[in-house]
Amino acid sequence: MGKEPQAEKKKQKLIRWQKSNVGVLYALIAPSLASIYFFGWRSLLLITVVAVAGFLTEYVFLRAYYREPVSSAVFVSSMLFTLSLPPSLPVWMAVVGIVFGIALGKMAFGGFGRNIFNPALTGRAFIYISFGGWMNGGWLDPIGGIPGGFGTFISDAVSSATPMAVIAGGSPVDRINLIFGNISGCLGETSALLLLLGGLYLMIKKYANYRIVVSAFASTIALNTVLRLSGAPGVIDTVSAVLGGGYMIGMLYMATDPVSASQTTNTGRWIYGSVIGILTVIIRSFSIWPGGVMFAILTTNMFAPLLDYYMKKSKSRGNAK
Prior knowledge:
Layout: H1 4-11, E1 15-16, H2 19-27, H3 29-39, H4 42-66, E2 70-71, H5 73-83, H6 91-105, H7 119-130, H8 132-136, E3 139-140, E4 158-159, H9 163-168, H10 175-180, H11 192-204, H12 210-229, H13 238-243, H14 247-254, H15 266-286, H16 293-320
Parallel strand pairs: 1-2
Antiparallel strand pairs: 3-4
Helix pairs in contact: 2-5, 2-11, 3-4, 4-5, 4-6, 5-6, 5-7, 6-7, 7-16, 11-14, 12-15, 15-16
């Protein structure tokens, strides 16, 4: 009898907080504050609305099918999704994106721990294709100064293109601005420095696997440098390739997602990260998409289970010998 109330209390738990997910949220605090400073309080509005929409989507699925508490991972997906959006994107489009990402990219596979694709990138890819005009235009210049965006709702200075589009077009971009974030772009991907500091925190705490990050960076730098030196058309300089275009947020926070990334062996993680880095350079250099990171990660997500299967099989054979 004494155990029944405790069991009932566990059943009524609304959110299951995982330490690793809380750690990622901590790492994203600085980029989130920077998004407000550079683009205004509308950033916080998008972050809040998307988080609520993501939570409700997962809650509805769980109540209907699984009777489990909502995983705190939904807030990580919602935050990463929002930080990868243009500052002026209509709120309803952001809601459509996160609902699609959580419903089709996560819950359709059975919920937390079972999804193949990164939910944040699944949602972003959907609205990127569905609302291409909004996702590729209407960029805003950062506000800057004191108090920056903390003194206004949204920047009213319009920029014609993101840094990656400018660089791909052959025009130079100030690398100092790429490092600190004082440049047009998506809400949370402009400051390479803040994203790098958060990523280092995740790797030190072992919430993100350093093998994926190191192999992704190494393969990107190596291939991009070789193509650049060989004079291949459309290849941007290597420093800008790493600092711009959402590369940092993609490699440090999305490629390392422990569910959709390679999980079984360290060798698999090295290969997984290397493939993402190589695909990023190829897509950026030889396709119509100057970013490339999103499609590189989603493509590699698709083959991660197969990679894990063969790595595990190879390891078992080695042990048997």
